[in-house]
C-alpha cells in the first residue's frame, strides 16, 4: 500500500512538472507570435516601395532643357519645364540639353592638293535646334556631327595647295561650316561656328619655312641698309651743292665747330670766299710782298756778259 502511494505521488509530481514546462513554453512563444504580424507587414511595405520606385519615376526638366514624352513607345510631344511623374512601362520622358556647346575635332592628317600631309584640329560650336529631329533623325547625333565635320575638313584641305592653305588658313573654318551646316540641319543640329584650333605641318617643312622667313628678313634688313646709305649720300650731295652755291656756309660751320671745342689750339686753312685756300696770301700780304720786291736792288748781269778778260 505504501509503495503504491509513493508511485502515485511521483506520477502526480511528474504531471505537475510537465504542466509547468508547457505553460512556460506557451508564455515564451506568445511574444514571438505577437511580432510576426508587424514584421510581415513591414516586409510588404518595403517590397511595395521598391516596386513603386522601379515603376514610378520623377523627371525634372529645367529651363535650358527640352523634354520629349513617349507613351507606350510612341512620341506624344514636348513637355514644359518642371517636374513630371512617369510610369516606366507606359510613359517615358527623354531630356536633351538645349544650351550651346563645343565639339572638339582632334588633329586629322589630310593630304593637300600637292601631296603635303597637314594635321588640323577644329573647334565647332553647335546647339540642338530641333530635339525631335536630333533623337529620331539619327541614332547618335553627336557621332554624326563628328563624322560630317571630319569629311568637310578633308574636302576643304584636299582642294588647295600647302601655300594656299597657309595663306588662307583663317577661311578653313568658315568653308567647313558652309559644307556641313545644311547636312547637320537635317538631324536637328544648328552649327553656329567652326574655327581652326591647330594647324601642324611636318618637321622638315617647318625648317624650310623658317629658312624662307629668315632669308626674307635678311633681305629686308639689307634693303633698309641700302636705303640708309642712299639717304646719307643724298644728304651729302645736297650739302655739297649748298656749300658750292654759298661758300660762307663752310666758314660758319667751322666757326661753330671751333666754338664747341675744348680749348685746344687748332690751326685750320679757311677759304677766302673767292675759291682760294688759306695757303694763298691775303690782299694785304700780297701788297707788302709787291712793295718789298720794288725796293730790292736789281742784280747785275751774269758773269758771262761782263767782259771779263780771258786768261793768258
Notes on the protein architecture:
The protein is of the alpha+beta class and 312 residues long. Among the domains are: 56-97, no CATH class; 101-201, 2-Layer Sandwich (Tetrahydropterin Synthase, Chain A); 206-254. It contains eight helices and eight strands, in the order αβββββββααααβααα. It has a three-stranded antiparallel beta sheet with strand order 3-2-5, with no helix packed on it. Strands 6-7-8 form a three-stranded antiparallel beta sheet. A two-stranded antiparallel sheet has the order 1-4. Strand 6 (101-111) and strand 7 form a beta hairpin. Helix 3 crosses helix 5 (172-185). Mean pLDDT is 76; it is low at 273-285 and 294-312.
Question: Care to give the gist of this entry?
Answer:
The chain is α+β, with helices and mostly antiparallel strands. Among the domains are: 56-97, no CATH class; 101-201, Band 7 domain (Tetrahydropterin Synthase, Chain A); 206-254.
Can you tag this structure with a few keywords?
single chain, disordered C terminus, three-stranded antiparallel β-sheet, Tetrahydropterin Synthase, Chain A, 8 helices, alpha+beta, 8 strands, 312 residues
Amino acid at each position: 500500500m505504501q509503495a503504491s502511494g509513493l508511485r502515485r505521488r511521483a506520477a502526480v509530481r511528474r504531471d505537475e512538472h510537465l504542466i509547468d514546462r508547457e505553460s512556460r513554453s506557451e508564455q515564451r512563444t506568445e511574444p514571438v507570435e505577437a511580432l510576426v504580424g508587424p514584421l510581415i507587414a513591414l516586409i510588404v511595405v518595403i517590397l511595395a516601395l521598391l516596386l513603386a520606385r522601379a515603376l514610378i519615376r520623377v523627371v525634372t526638366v529645367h529651363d535650358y532643357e527640352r523634354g520629349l514624352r513617349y507613351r507606350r513607345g510612341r512620341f506624344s510631344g514636348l513637355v514644359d519645364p518642371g517636374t513630371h511623374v512617369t510610369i516606366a512601362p507606359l510613359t517615358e520622358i527623354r531630356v536633351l540639353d538645349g544650351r550651346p556647346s563645343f565639339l572638339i575635332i582632334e588633329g586629322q592628317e589630310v593630304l593637300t592638293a600637292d601631296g603635303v600631309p597637314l594635321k588640323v584640329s577644329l573647334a565647332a560650336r553647335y546647339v540642338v535646334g530641333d530635339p525631335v529631329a536630333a533623337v529620331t533623325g539619327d541614332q547618335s547625333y553627336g557621332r554624326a556631327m563628328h563624322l560630317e565635320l571630319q569629311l568637310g575638313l578633308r574636302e576643304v584641305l584636299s582642294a588647295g595647295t600647302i601655300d594656299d592653305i597657309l595663306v588662307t588658313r583663317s577661311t578653313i573654318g568658315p568653308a567647313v561650316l558652309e559644307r556641313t551646316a545644311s547636312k547637320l540641319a537635317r538631324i536637328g543640329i544648328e552649327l553656329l561656328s567652326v574655327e581652326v584650333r591647330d594647324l601642324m605641318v611636318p618637321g622638315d617643312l617647318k625648317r624650310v619655312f623658317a629658312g624662307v622667313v629668315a632669308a626674307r628678313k635678311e633681305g629686308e634688313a639689307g634693303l633698309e641698309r641700302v636705303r640708309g646709305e642712299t639717304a646719307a649720300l643724298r644728304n651729302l650731295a645736297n650739302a655739297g651743292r649748298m656749300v658750292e652755291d654759298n661758300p660762307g656756309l663752310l666758314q660758319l660751320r667751322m666757326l661753330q665747330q671751333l666754338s664747341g671745342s675744348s680749348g685746344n689750339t687748332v690751326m685750320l686753312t679757311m677759304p677766302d670766299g673767292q675759291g682760294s685756300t688759306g695757303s694763298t696770301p691775303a690782299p694785304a700780304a700780297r701788297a707788302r710782298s709787291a712793295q718789298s720786291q720794288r725796293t730790292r736792288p736789281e742784280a747785275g748781269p751774269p758773269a758771262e756778259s761782263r767782259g771779263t778778260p780771258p786768261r793768258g
